[in-house]
């Protein structure tokens, strides 16, 4: 049984295959209209969502399947104190596949360890969002015809933006990817992404604070909103919330075939006057999200026993405590804290749930 917790649970070949299936679905929707007949998808969303939940549900309906849905912890047993593990066990009795969004980092991994059906991470706090990344990859592929040889700028909240983390993780495996990280100092990409993903995969990148100066070299610009709900201090959010606004005027500096992506929702970081520019791809991206989720649900429900690429359960270390307040271990007391040794020489360990670093 296969879970998709992080985008690197999928190999590059599998991503290619998902993109091909999505393109075939776009061309021949009727061919797939009963592919999941008799199957049920449960969407468990303990955090707000419009696109992700509705696109999962629309995807399942268009495959001929059915949907069971929980939205918000206040309408489910989570409000009575039920753990993520118990909820996953229970929902496995009703559904054939689960898509879950939860505010705590590592929550989807916890759910996958006790569920008896495949679990798809639909966003675990500020950590990852693999199906948004599949959406982004399909969009880049449809716009550019390639996933290699891309210079991409990520702009905005690179610290808490889970869609940024997952897309960087995915693109790091392609050839000749150049990354420009555009953010205020306070919202830089976390260390586990810079050292553990970009450096490790020899991806060329630079960090800048100014959008205008980076614009002219980009093939893709990935705009993000400042993630208000993840800030510990409201003052800091207010100070940073208007850091970047992309306008039609600024776009005159960019390439004529730039693709502008945004996972949405937009707050004010892209002015509406950009929407009519042919380079604006964020609404096309929304539709791509439904097709790629159809391809993913179909794959997970039909393939036989292919294991996850990531072996999370190997050589885990006990006896270290995760201090990240956003980690699922901070609220679910019965979860055993587990770490992986990632750098023996420097004595660096990372939490298997949220990837927070501990040095020993
Ligand atoms: C993103 C998310 O929820 O992480 N949106 C999405 O899934 N389409 C981005 C965001 O909330 O800013």
Task: Outline the structure in words.
- With 360 residues, this protein is of the alpha/beta class.
- It has ten helices and twelve strands.
- N-carbamoyl-L-aspartate binds next to helix 2 and helix 6.
What is bound: which ligands? Answer: N-carbamoyl-L-aspartate
Q: The biggest beta sheet, please?
A: 5 strands, parallel
Strand content: 15-25%
Number of strands: 12
Q: Extract low-pLDDT stretches.
A: none
How do the strands line up in the largest sheet?
Answer: 7-6-5-8-9
Averaged pLDDT, please?
94
What form results from the Cα inertia axes?
Answer: globular
Instruction: Label the structural class.
Output: alpha/beta
Give a quick precis of the structure.
The chain has 360 residues and is of the alpha/beta class. Helices cover 31% and strands 17% of the residues.
Keywords summarizing the entry:
binds N-carbamoyl-L-aspartate; alpha/beta; four-stranded parallel β-sheet; 360 residues
Question: What's the arrangement of secondary structure elements?
Answer:
Layout: H1 12-27, E1 40-45, H2 51-62, E2 66-71, H3 84-92, E3 97-102, H4 107-114, E4 119-124, H5 130-144, E5 150-155, H6 162-171, E6 177-182, H7 191-199, E7 204-208, H8 211-215, E8 220-223, H9 234-240, E9 259-261, H10 282-302, E10 339-343, E11 348-351, E12 357-359
Parallel strand pairs: 1-2, 1-3, 3-4, 5-6, 5-8, 6-7, 8-9
Antiparallel strand pairs: 10-11, 11-12
Helix pairs in contact: 1-5, 1-10, 2-10, 3-4, 5-6, 5-10
The structure holds N-carbamoyl-L-aspartate.
N-carbamoyl-L-aspartate binds next to α2 and α6.
